[in-house]
Amino acid sequence: MSQTELPSRASVVIVGGGVMGLSTAYHLARAGVPDVVLVEKGELGSGSTSKAAGGVRAQFSDAVNIELGARSLRVFERFGALFDQEIDLHQVGYLFLLERPEHVEAFEKNVALQNELGVPSRLVDVAEAKALSPLISTEGLLAAAYSPTDGHCTPRERRQRLRGRRAACRRVPGPALRGHRHRLQRGGP
Questions:
Q1: Given a cut of 90, is residue 143 above it in pLDDT?
Q2: DSSP alpha helices (H): ranges in the chain?
Q3: Could you tell me the pTM of the whole model?
Q4: Distance CA 155, CA 20 (A)
Q5: How far apart are CA 110 and CA 149, in angstroms?
């Protein structure tokens, strides 16, 4: 079968070759899942991944996203050792500015949950927020939420590094699907 033929069967089909799709395909293949198929209509990482600001964080309001963010940060921290390639990660912290009492109350709950899940976030007062980010305006600011392990990473760098890890999967480009109706059966060969 050629690289562009759509297989009649696959264990897993992933639609979308952005950071999430590429990472999912990589981890499934690494875990030994056979016949992982990644379908992308354009170039890998050319959709929303290429337009992202690049913020990486574990400061979220629900356990699933907190754990996903924390796990991603741990992988990004060891990316060079894991993949023999460096990634443009800068853990300079992430600061949420809070100007309304109800936002402070919500972030108090968020920070408590984040801390339970191992994220070192905390609420900071206005003076500390200003010290962390001297260019902010403190007018109307009540507090801020901060986590020192959050930061930013160039989406292009993440995409390019993960592209290099696609060897365990066969890519079937989106154009192979145009004009065809295929039904993929569950299971391997």
A1: yes
A2: 19-30, 63-77, 79-83, 101-116, 126-132, 155-163
A3: 0.73
A4: 11
A5: 16
